[in-house]
């Protein structure tokens, strides 16, 4: 029974070798912090870490199916908040459920609430305030993007710190960021706009890259320090997250 099955599996492994996975598949399966990458490259992890709960930094992927960590560390990991709707949906497990709470005798008879689970990062949201499943789905994906922007950092956050070094050029802002940047170092976007989560994710990545120093992060992105703080403060809990990291780095908390 078990011994023969194990022997057969080992035989197949010797013949065919470890299963191969594409880089694209690896990136969407499991994200791990870059600071753990040297360990992952030198030893076989029993269970790849989904996310660094303390910093939220995610950057490179390790496939659960591969015997060795995949060689995708040099590739930039795209922040999930920047993905197209189609690509984001491909990474999300969707579950319908009944709405809870008051609202009449018919409220709990129809499954109009929706739970979204972003599998690569483990981020979850529930949308149930709307009467329509379609409306809750739209609201759920909007909330998911915002939560991903807050809780997940991409490989961009682990790039070398610029710090105002005039001998080198800081990484260029995204095209979306440039399209929203106005004269005088102002960023034009409403917190309710679909672009807001992507811009917030980019801002937090750059702030993290600069050691949580908003001065150099703002300069690198072409806007004023006050505008960058204003952008972060528009998302509930974002400024608190930045201040928590600044405290760890020995920096003073920012004021709204």
Task: Tell me briefly what this model is.
The protein is mainly α and 256 residues long.
Question: Would you write up a description of this structure?
Answer:
Helices cover 39% and strands 10% of the residues. It is mostly helical. The strands form three sheets. A three-stranded antiparallel β-sheet has the order 3-4-5. A two-stranded antiparallel ribbon has the order 1-2. Strands 6-7 form a two-stranded antiparallel ribbon. The longest helix is centred in the middle third of the chain and has 19 residues, at 133-151. The chain starts with a helix and ends in an 8-residue tail after the last helix.
Radius of gyration: 21 Å
The sequence of SSEs as H and E is: HHEHEHEEEHHEEHHHH
Number of separate helices: 10
As laid out across the biggest beta sheet, the strand order is 3-4-5
First-residue to last-residue Cα separation:
65 Å
Q: What composes the largest sheet?
A: 3 strands, antiparallel
Question: Strand share of the residues?
Answer: 5-15%
Question: What does the average pLDDT come to?
Answer: 76
Number of strands: 7
**Structural class by SSE content:** mainly alpha
Unreliable parts: 2-76
Approximate helicity band: 25-40%
The global form is elongated
Describe this protein with a few key phrases.
256 residues; two-stranded antiparallel sheet; elongated; disordered N terminus
């Amino acid at each position: 029974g078990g011994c023969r099955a194990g022997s057969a599996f080992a035989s197949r492994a010797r013949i065919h070798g470890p299963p191969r996975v594409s880089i694209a598949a690896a990136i969407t399966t499991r994200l791990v912090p870059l600071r753990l990458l040297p360990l992952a490259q030198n030893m076989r992890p029993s269970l790849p870490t989904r996310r660094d709960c303390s910093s939220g930094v995610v950057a490179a992927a390790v496939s659960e199916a591969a015997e060795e960590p995949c060689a995708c560390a040099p590739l930039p990991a795209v922040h999930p908040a920047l993905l197209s709707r189609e690509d984001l949906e491909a990474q999300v497990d969707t579950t319908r459920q009944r709405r809870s709470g008051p609202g009449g005798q018919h409220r709990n008879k129809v499954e109009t609430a929706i739970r979204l689970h972003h599998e690569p990062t483990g981020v979850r949201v529930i949308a149930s305030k709307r009467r329509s499943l379609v409306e809750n789905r739209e609201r759920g994906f909007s909330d998911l993007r915002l939560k991903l922007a807050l809780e997940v950092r991409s490989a961009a956050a682990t790039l070398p710190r610029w710090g105002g070094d005039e001998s080198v050029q800081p990484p260029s802002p995204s095209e979306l960021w440039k399209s929203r940047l106005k004269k005088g170092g102002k960023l034009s976007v409403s917190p309710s706009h679909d672009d807001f989560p992507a811009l917030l994710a980019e801002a937090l990545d750059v702030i993290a890259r600069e050691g949580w120093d908003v001065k150099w992060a703002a300069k690198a992105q072409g806007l004023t320090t006050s505008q960058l703080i204003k952008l972060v403060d528009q998302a509930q809990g974002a400024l608190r997250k930045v201040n928590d990291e600044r405290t760890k780095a020995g920096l003073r908390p920012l004021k709204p």
